[in-house]
Specification:
heterodimer, A: alpha/beta, FAD/NAD(P)-binding domain, 2 domains, 9 helices, globular, B: about 110 residues, mainly beta, Ubiquitin-like (UB roll), 3-stranded mixed beta sheet, about 30% strand, 2Fe-2S-bd_N (chain B), oxidoreductase activity (chain B), 2Fe-2S_ferredoxin-like_sf (chain B)
Chain lengths: ~375, ~110
């Protein structure tokens, strides 16, 4: 077993982790980024649509291009990136158990930033385990990263932005989207994404759900039905669609295993995907020296993840004395202003409220100390 | 089926072609891609069967989290094929149920 020491270890080389690493390394910290995948970028490289928001958030730039730019900045910053590397455990003192290049390491860092992201939710119905039923993100990875079509005729379940965007991207890759099914009475995601599907002639069936999927060893038929106000299928409204693939776009949940293991305190926020670690305005958890950033703190989107990563990187570097109080305050003010902008408006409001709830929980945990940030 | 032309990503970049074997049958693959992508391209959707009910399972998450895509790869069971890259001559087998737990003697 070998031992590695570093100023800051970042777990996860996605939107949040790379941003954190860039900020910390730019401030002069010795940074080690660890990721299980063979390529960095997390889920950014499958985002081939243009991002929203203001110019400061690179609106109008496609996700994979943002990923490429971020990667170049990190490479120039001097941060080390270990790919194909598994963090299998974290001790209470925040030392990490790591397998890299077939060898076992213990990584001891003065500060640890966990940016492990999120994974897709599953929804059970008869036939939901048949080959051909998959996460919408899985289908997106297959077409945009691996350049393989998961099927020819797809039924999408869920009309949030993931369901809308992936439906369109499956069509761009050459599949037919037979229908997009949504149990709620209204479309969940942005109208601009729904409009693209409508113009392409994809039926968006709100107030419907999938009741079962059948087929001989794989998806062949998808039975859908209307639902009542309690989301129960209405008998007699069933109809069957011929399809070979079902994509589930029914939300994500934070990948919090390492944070639990480290002993962080959690709060339950459904709008963020379930149990999320409490953290303060510096992204530090209830375990001193352990920071979190991005979807692991609550499912939002890539731009917010990058900003939370920036914040965690700046605050960890500041805590190590690598930035002056003034430098850190300036950077934090800029980042927080961008985060506020991302969490504003019709769609951002829910996330802003949820984030405030999370910060309040941390404050209550720390004994009502009114200085959080 | 390969996405050879794409309106945003353009033409599929050149890649070295390699051969993997699915239950002994040769399957063409692109160097650097995960096993699951090569199988999906070949139209193979059932990767394993479950331990209790012997039902087929295929890709679900494609990012190494759900373990639905586990297969026996070059003799190693429980290999996540969505995050394991192809290698020329690789033997990929359908996995039935769970592999036996390895003992300390097996590892030695």
């Amino acid at each position: 077993m070998r031992e590695i020491t570093t100023d800051i270890a970042v777990i996860g080389a996605g939107s949040a982790g790379l941003s954190a690493a860039y900020q910390a390394a730019s401030a002069g910290a010795d940074v080690l980024v660890i990721d299980e995948n063979h390529l960095p970028g997390g889920q950014l490289f499958k985002q081939i649509h243009k991002f929203f928001g203001s110019r400061a958030h690179q609106a109008g730039t496609r996700g994979f291009q943002i990923g490429q730019e971020l990667l170049e900045r990190v490479q120039k910053s001097g941060a080390r990136v270990w790919l194909d590397t598994l963090v299998y455990g974290i001790e209470r003192d925040c030392s990490l158990g790591v397998i890299h290049d077939g060898a076992h390491y213990v990584v001891r860092a003065k500060k640890v930033i966990v940016a492990t992201g999120a994974k897709e939710n599953y929804m059970a119905f008869p036939g939901s385990t048949l080959p051909g039923v998959m996460g919408a993100g899985a289908a997106q990875t297959m077409v945009n990263v691996n350049r393989v079509l998961p099927g020819k005729r797809v039924v999408m379940l869920g009309s949030g932005n993931v369901g809308l965007i992936v439906s369109y991207q499956l069509m761009q890759a050459g599949a037919d989207v037979v229908a997009l099914v949504e149990a709620a009475p209204e479309i969940g995601g942005y109208a601009v994404h729904a409009g693209k599907l409508r113009r392409a002639g994809v039926p968006i069936l709100v107030g419907h759900t999938i009741t079962r999927v059948t087929g001989d060893g794989q998806v062949e038929r998808v039975e859908i039905a209307q639902v009542d106000k309690q989301f129960n299928p209405i008998p007699g409204t069933e109809r069957v669609l011929e399809a070979d693939t079902v994509c589930l776009a029914v939300g994500l949940n934070p990948m919090t295993e390492l944070v639990w293991m480290a002993g962080c305190k959690f709060c339950f926020i459904p709008a963020f995907g379930g149990h999320v670690p409490m953290h303060d305005g510096n992204m530090e958890t209830t375990v001193p020296g352990l920071y979190v950033a991005g979807d692991v703190t609550g499912v939002e989107e890539a731009s917010s993840a990058m900003e939370e990563g920036n914040l965690a990187g700046v605050c960890a570097a500041h805590a190590l004395g690598l930035l002056t109080d003034e430098q850190a305050a300036d950077k934090k003010a800029e980042i927080n202003a961008r985060l506020d902008a991302l969490r504003a408006g019709l769609f951002g409001e829910r996330r802003r409220t949820a984030k405030q709830q999370q910060l309040d929980a941390m404050q209550a945990e720390q004994g009502g100390n009114d200085h959080v940030g | 089926m390969r996405v050879s032309e794409h309106p945003i990503l353009g033409a599929l970049p050149e890649a070295e072609s390699v051969t993997i074997y699915f239950d002994g049958q040769p399957i063409p693959a692109r160097a650097g891609e995960p096993i699951a992508a090569a199988l999906m391209n070949a139209g193979i959707r059932a990767f394993r069967t479950t331990a209790k009910r012997h039902e087929p399972r295929g890709i679900f998450c494609a990012i190494g989290r759900c373990t639905d895509c586990m297969m026996i790869v070059d003799g190693v069971p429980n290999t996540r094929t969505c995050v394991t890259l192809v290698r020329d001559g690789m033997q990929v087998e359908t996995q039935h149920g769970l592999a036996a737990m390895r003992t300390e003697e097996d590892k030695a």
